[in-house]
Amino acid sequence: MKPLVLVVDDEAQMREIVRYTLEETGCEVLEASGAASAWKLVKSSDLALVILDLMLPDGSGVELAKRIRSAQKLPILMLTALGDPQQRIEGLQAGADDYLPKPFSPRELSLRVEAILRRTHKMRQMEPRRELGPLSLDTARGRAYYLAKDLKLSETEFKLLRVLAEANGGVVTIRELLNQVWETTSTSGGRDMVKTTIYRLRAKLRSAGSDEMIHTLRGGGYILEYLGREN
């Protein structure tokens, strides 16, 4: 079955470009020109991915992304203005898994979409559950729990946490995270993506009652520490 992708953009020409590119990639496509129509499709469709413009005529793309993330675990690719790091940060903080600045080439869009869908597929094939002291990772469903409380992580947040967990207390560098989570080795703009995702992860863990589990090491690495880990 072809993955079903929702494209949300108020510009008809942009939706047409994205639709054509996605169909060439092997996806089926639904379109929405605003936040209200997009939300109806999110609730009624079995989507694999949402491609979402930040600027919508009837609401904020950031707010729609937050609403989608709070309702279900859907990967989100955010379309942002070229050269606006604040928009990228806002999108990532809202729960977007990746961003693509406009204007973009159809080839780059195709590669980004394929990478996100590939990550989603891989995640469903991994070991079903991993216990890390009070932290539990359900890889079959892409969910993480702290003391049985659902952390409600985004696709990218869960992937990053899983990579840290699989290091078994070892250091994971920014380049390794970019490679394994975003499937890129470029640090151009990548450091912001990693730092923002780490920030969101820490905030969600703290909200669940966790002490600091993710530590930043001098030189740009991260380590996950938890009670009960074997040294």
TrEMBL record:
Molecular function GO labels: phosphorelay response regulator activity; transcription cis-regulatory region binding
Matching CDD domains: trans_reg_C (cd00383)
Gene Ontology annotations for the cellular component aspect, listed alphabetically: cytosol; protein-DNA complex
4-aspartylphosphate modifications at: D53
InterPro entries in the cross-refs: CheY-like_superfamily, OmpR/PhoB-type_DNA-bd, Sig_transdc_resp-reg_C-effctor, Sig_transdc_resp-reg_receiver, WalR-like, WH-like_DNA-bd_sf
Coiled coil: none
SMART domains: REC, Trans_reg_C
Regions recorded as binding DNA: 127-226
Domain of life: Bacteria
Domain Response regulatory, chain residue ranges per copy: 4-117
Biological processes, Gene Ontology terms: regulation of DNA-templated transcription
Domain named OmpR/PhoB-type: residues: 127-226
Keywords: DNA-binding, Phosphoprotein, Transcription, Transcription regulation, Two-component regulatory system
Name of protein: Response regulator transcription factor
Species name: Varibaculum cambriense
Record lineage: Bacteria, Bacillati, Actinomycetota, Actinomycetes, Actinomycetales
